[in-house]
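Mods, move this if it's the wrong board.
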Amino acid sequence: MSHRELYCDVCEGVVLFEAPPCVDGHGTDCPELICTDCGAAVVVGAIAFPVTRLAVRHRQPAHRRAA
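Not the wrong board. Structure tokens:
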């Protein structure tokens, strides 16, 4: 099991969190963590958003936008 110290909203402080046995095959990198004091569960992970066409257009050089 993986252990990390994180802020727990229920305990209102920094406490030890651990990753339970992961059925998804993540091992120690499992994003699901449980507070060892109160049992509150959290999911830690990055969220990726696709780049929209509008965002791509705004990043083009000015001389290419005029065409």
